[in-house]
Amino acid sequence: MSKLHVLMCCHNGERFVQEQLESIVAQERPVHGIHVHDFASRDGTVQTIEAFARSSAVPVALTRHADAPGASLSFFRALASLAASLGHDDAVLLADQDDVWLPHKTRALLAVFESISEQERAVFHDVKVVGSDLAELRPTYYTGNPFALPRDLHRARLLLASPVIGHTLVVSAPLVRRVVRLARPQHYLMHDWSLVLFASRFGEIRFVPEALSLYRQHTANVLGAYGRRRLRDVLRRVGGFSDAVVQQALAFSQDIEPAAAECLYRGRVDRWLQALSRRAPSAAYGVLAASALLLGPTLQRKGLAIFIAAHGMRRSFDNITKPGSS
Hints:
Blueprint: E1 4-10, H1 17-25, E2 33-39, H2 45-55, E3 60-65, H3 71-83, E4 91-95, E5 100-101, H4 105-113, E6 121-130, E7 136-138, E8 170-172, H5 173-182, H6 191-202, E9 204-216, H7 231-255, H8 268-277, H9 284-295, H10 299-321
Parallel strand pairs: 1-2, 1-4, 2-3, 6-9
Antiparallel strand pairs: 4-8, 5-9, 6-7, 6-8
Helix pairs in contact: 3-5, 5-6, 7-8, 7-10, 8-9, 9-10
């Protein structure tokens, strides 16, 4: 292993970022550098990071951005910025601004990471779900609802849902460079999902079944472990997700096409989507609806098939009724 890089994106994270940075510097297996990208914070985030960097035993590099494009596009941009400076054997650990790493996280993660022979690899871990004050809410994220492992690392299921929490990932430099080179960020729901998809086709992804960080839940979370919503909001959210997940799967099938010969795993669903991506993309809704129904491990996940199929029928109807269509 050459160097361990930590990549963190921030936006208005003054309340928690100091504690996160302290937990990273306190790792039993030290990291070589922390790359922080701040996206248009309006609070004291930048000043907190700059003050921390002046006294940190680990180098902290801060890059400031004038806009805030959202979590996913922010990380895609930060990954692209870091990719060119990575050595072939380097590893990148993703970090959110508001969580806390337990002291043995890097040691436990890298023990597994370094045991994998595939160059394009990713390893992630379990977390303790905690409140804003770090009081434990539950000891694991993987309770079976919504996710259980290794069940949900099935390659076809990864097209429909990702069980990976982004800030638990360590990824190899070759994987980062492949994603930066081939993935079109605007088509992916989350940056970490793209890393998982590419690792599952071009290399290997593994899970460490140990809680190695504290996953903080608070009102400003972009994504959270759970939360109560009204039924109407849930239906609207799932409907939007079902449409986006099909578009992401189609984009992924197109993005990997230039490197198809290098894919280590090309499942049946992958091949179907690849065939459809250039000819009849609307048919992808049927393929993924069938996948959700057949491979969904829970009733809720099977139910996604209904939303996907409904969006597919709506799109087909819209195409038929467009002016000039026969």
